[in-house]
Amino acid sequence: MKKQLLYLLGVACAGLLSSCTQTGGLGAYDAYDRPASKPSNPNNVRVKVSTNKQMAYVLEGNKPLLVMPVSVGKASTPTPKGNYTIYSKQEYRRAQTHGYFDYGNGKYGQGYRRNKPAGTKFIGTPMPYWMEFKSAYGFHTGWMKDKPCTHGCIRMHHNVAPKFYEIVKTGTPVNIAYSQPEDATLGRNVPRPPDATPLPDFPISYMVTNKVYKRHKSPTYQ
Q1: Active site located where (predicted)?
Q2: What is the rounded distance in angstroms from the CA atom of residue 25 to the CA atom of residue 18?
Q3: Catalytically annotated residue among 140, 157, 158, 216
Q4: Fewer CB in a 10 Å sphere around the end CB: N or C, the chain?
Q5: pLDDT tens series, the chain, 222 aa
Q6: How far is CA 145 from the centre of its chain?
Q7: What residue spans define the domains of the chain?
């Protein structure tokens, strides 16, 4: 997880922009997407997460609205299991503990808020499309890998996250378990996005703007 945090807080070299621009340039990873449908009755929507399969199932009754791969917590920082409810939604959320230090005049540093240099402005690491189900735990956009890799949150691909955010509302129930019955059916042959390794570095001057929240495709529904 240390490497992932370094990505989020890293400064990109000037030549990076030629191959990895502010709007994407990550080839197959950026092209990944999943089909989704809007519910007839949002009150009947529920979410089931399989930590073993690293899959999330958004259901209206027995009808799948969205089936998406996710990244979950690693063994040392596992995603909590149990029954929860989405109680907070923030499209433009930023972390409160780690991020960037704005020195002014286009100069930035990075690190933990507790170490913020005097005279700088703290700007948290972006966590787009945040949907909290337990204090300090939530669904949000983030780089996805083939193996569990997070601090316990559930990461979504940036093209799929806005669909999940629109379908799921405050009050939607969430069940997180080692496995789900849907693993053998709905989740059986769902392709994952390419493993985002090595993690790309975007310039801090980009990460501190709201542009980072709009990297995704315009969401469409079936």
Answers
A1: 140 (proton donor/acceptor), 153 (nucleophile)
A2: 9
A3: 140
A4: C
A5: 433 443 333 333 323 332 333 334 478 899 999 999 999 999 999 999 999 999 999 999 999 999 999 999 999 999 999 999 999 999 999 999 999 999 999 999 999 999 999 999 999 999 999 999 999 999 999 999 999 999 999 999 999 999 999 999 999 999 999 999 999 999 999 999 998 887 777 899 999 999 999 999 999 999
A6: 11
A7: 2-214
Residue 13 annotated to the active site: no
Six token digits for residue 78: 């596992």
pTM, full prediction: 0.85
Which residue do the tokens 């089936």 mark? 67
User: By the 8 A CB rule, do 39 and 45 touch?
Assistant: yes
How far is residue 182's CA from residue 50's CA, in Å, rounded to a whole number?
9
* 2-214 CATH, one of 3.40.50.720, 2.60.40.1190, 2.40.440.10, 1.10.10.10: 2.40.440.10
Active site residue 140: yes
Residues 6+ apart with CB under 8 A from 214: none
